[in-house]
Design the sequence.
């Protein structure tokens, strides 16, 4: 989640209550929880409510992010929680489990179910589940502007009457409907603001724990009798209504079964009976009870929407339809992908960011201004030699650490995040996932993996966390390995592309080696690891013209986050290198790498750049940048060094996340394998170039 600015004034100013009202107000904040499918604008709505002051953290016991913020609506203080994308209260992924856990454990005062207004038939299924669970739901029909452009007409008032809950139309990108939503939230926060049961008999209880028998869908007589039997055996209140707990138990949901067994006086009897009913039903019908529940619920959704939504075919955009088709057709889609990579990432990030901006900031600002000033100051006022070296020596905190972070990393990361935000907001990434699904299956992944793999081009550490969106542990291991091996982060990629930009032939060889290592290693790993090929499905948002304001907000927030993470690590790396140089440990590690560096045809001085690469990948690339500027590398050596360094072990930050996500054993195995492959590929590249007599100029 990327924080963004809020809309509205007065009652809409969010987070300023911190300064005006103090901690006492925070302690009594009411809680709003946002739920919904991916790609429905949920996070943007979260940004509209909370402003730029949101925090993102792992949900306890998981590696799944949950975003939290606060806002002031009227005179009420609200904690706002943005949950991961979910399609159902019966989870099949870690994200859906976390969303269900948040709803069950945090007792929300309001649940905002955010849906895409153009896709109500697919998304109201979860709305009905939330109502059946006794949750205090407000349905937010988002992307109303896109629905209107697509020719949709939606009678929100009639939908509200039929569901029996508030329904608000919004367009979170432009801020349309946000003030109306805040008014509904403010009114809904009081008992008098609660809706009466709608035409379908839906009721939402204020206290979810005491919700009873909330019935939106009438299932078959056999299922209803099973639900009634189970609810009659329950004596206690639970996070969801007894009806929903019975439905989950009948579908053999592990969380519901465990909760009922450990809390209800007749828990074991309930579990045995639910299992018996489930087996009896499957034996009689020939398919699962969960399937029939979904089919019946969807039929009810279709009934609810009858006459509410209409679409005029004349409003469809022929240009949008054409763009949608060519971006997903392999014949035209791959040339478009290459064009995006070349112009957006290579030209803008690689040449402008890593070339023009880096040259300006490093040469004009640091080399000619900052470094001489710091060295004069330290020479005059710091008498202790080791301390002088720590601040302004070859590996000083300012002259090396801050120079690398600000002059080399910041402009590259900034241009990358600007480019990535543009591509992201355009809706192109999900189409890239559809396009790449067949190719990624070769390496044991689905099109869904394109998201963490693409994010890895910004920061592999962040992307390793995002691998949790993949459905199986097998996919997560493969994706983690491939990112550790062959996905350079934006700073490293930008520097290497800048180094090889003057040698087009060498750049093509670098792409071939890195791409070959990616494909070959992934293919082998997918055959070694047990498991079935992954299935793939994804919501497809419309292609849209990105808003400049949203792009700039995202870029600023991401740069702020990244830079706040980078500077401490660069300072720490400088201190470790300084300490290593002072104690001789750094020289020992460098000496251990020198034979390997020499074996791939590089000067021994390059060992330092590889050691830097463990502290940060971009740190090592920056060291390679310095060697090239000093004339210590020939074009062939530069190519071999770029190949090996790109494939070199993950930085310490990425490694620590690998340990957290995959465990120490898997993380160490990946690091050892990547280390061997990096120098192995470097050796092969150097040997082939020498045998063929190829020399780049």
Sequence:
């Amino acid at each position: 989640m990327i924080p963004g600015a809020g809309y509205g004034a007065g009652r809409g100013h969010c987070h300023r209550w911190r300064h005006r009202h103090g901690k006492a107000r925070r302690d009594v904040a009411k809680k709003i929880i946002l739920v919904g499918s991916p790609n429905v604008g949920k996070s943007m709505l979260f940004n509209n409510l909370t402003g730029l002051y949101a925090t993102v953290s792992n949900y306890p016991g998981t590696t799944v992010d949950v975003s939290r913020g606060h806002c002031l609506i009227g005179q009420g203080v609200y904690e706002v929680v943005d949950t991961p994308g979910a399609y159902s209260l019966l989870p099949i992924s870690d994200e859906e489990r976390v969303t269900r856990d948040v709803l069950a454990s945090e007792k929300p005062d309001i649940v905002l179910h955010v849906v895409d207004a153009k896709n109500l038939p697919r998304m109201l299924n979860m709305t009905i589940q939330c109502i059946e669970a006794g949750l205090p739901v407000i349905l937010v029909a988002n992307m109303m502007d896109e629905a209107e452009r697509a020719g949709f007409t939606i009678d929100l008032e009639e939908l509200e009457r039929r569901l029996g809950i508030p329904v608000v139309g919004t367009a979170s990108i432009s801020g349309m409907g946000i003030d109306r939503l805040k008014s509904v939230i403010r009114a809904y926060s009081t008992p008098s603001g609660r809706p009466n049961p709608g035409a379908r008999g839906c009721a939402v209880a204020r206290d979810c724990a005491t919700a009873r028998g909330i019935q939106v869908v009438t299932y078959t007589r056999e299922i209803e009798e099973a639900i009634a039997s189970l609810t009659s055996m329950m004596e206690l209140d639970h996070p969801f209504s007894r009806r929903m707990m019975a439905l989950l138990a009948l579908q053999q949901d592990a969380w519901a079964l465990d909760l009922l067994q450990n809390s209800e006086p007749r828990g074991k009897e309930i579990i045995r009976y639910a299992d018996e009913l489930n087996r009896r039903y499957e034996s009689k019908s020939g398919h699962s009870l969960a399937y029939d529940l979904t089919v019946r619920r969807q039929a009810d959704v279709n009934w609810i929407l009858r006459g509410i939504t209409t679409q005029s075919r004349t409003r469809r955009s022929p240009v949008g339809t054409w763009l949608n088709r060519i971006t997903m057709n392999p014949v035209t889609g791959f040339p478009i992908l290459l064009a995006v990579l070349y112009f957006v990432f290579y030209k803008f990030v690689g040449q402008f960011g890593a070339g023009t901006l880096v040259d300006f900031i490093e040469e004009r600002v640091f080399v000619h201004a900052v470094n001489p000033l710091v060295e004069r100051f330290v020479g005059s006022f710091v008498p202790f030699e080791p301390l002088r070296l720590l601040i302004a020596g070859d590996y000083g905190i300012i002259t090396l650490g801050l120079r690398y972070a600000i002059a080399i990393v910041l402009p590259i990361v900034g241009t990358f995040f600007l480019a990535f935000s543009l591509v992201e907001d355009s809706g192109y990434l999900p189409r890239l996932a559809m396009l790449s699904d067949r190719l990624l299956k070769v390496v044991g992944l689905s099109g869904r993996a394109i998201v963490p793999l693409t994010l890895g081009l910004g920061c592999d550490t962040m992307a390793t966390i995002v691998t949790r969106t993949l459905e199986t542990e097998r996919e997560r291991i493969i994706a983690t390995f491939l990112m550790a091996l062959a996905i350079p982060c934006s700073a490293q990629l930008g520097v290497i592309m800048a180094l090889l930009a003057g040698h087009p032939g060498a750049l093509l060889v670098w792409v071939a080696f890195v791409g070959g290592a990616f494909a070959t290693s992934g293919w082998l790993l997918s055959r070694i690891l047990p498991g079935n090929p992954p299935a793939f499905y994804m919501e497809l948002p419309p292609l849209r013209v990105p808003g400049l304001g949203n792009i700039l907000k995202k870029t600023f927030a991401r740069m702020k986050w990244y830079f706040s993470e980078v500077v401490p690590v660069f300072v720490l790396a400088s201190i470790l290198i300084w300490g290593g140089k002072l104690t001789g440990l750094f020289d020992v590690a460098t000496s251990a790498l020198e034979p390997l560096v020499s074996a791939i045809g590089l000067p021994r001085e390059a060992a330092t750049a590889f050691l830097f690469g463990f502290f940060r990948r971009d740190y090592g690339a920056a060291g390679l940048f310095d060697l090239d500027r000093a004339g210590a590398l020939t074009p062939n050596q530069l190519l071999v060094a770029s190949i090996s360094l790109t494939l070199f072990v993950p930085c310490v930050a990425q490694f620590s996340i690998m340990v957290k996500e995959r465990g120490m054993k898997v993380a160490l195995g990946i690091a050892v394998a990547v280390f061997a492959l990096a120098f192995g590929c470097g050796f092969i590249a150097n040997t082939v170039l020498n045998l063929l007599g190829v020399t780049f100029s």
Residues 221-311 form a domain with the Helix Hairpins fold (CATH 1.10.287.1770). The chain has three domains: 10-210, 221-311, 330-692. The radius of gyration is 28 Å.
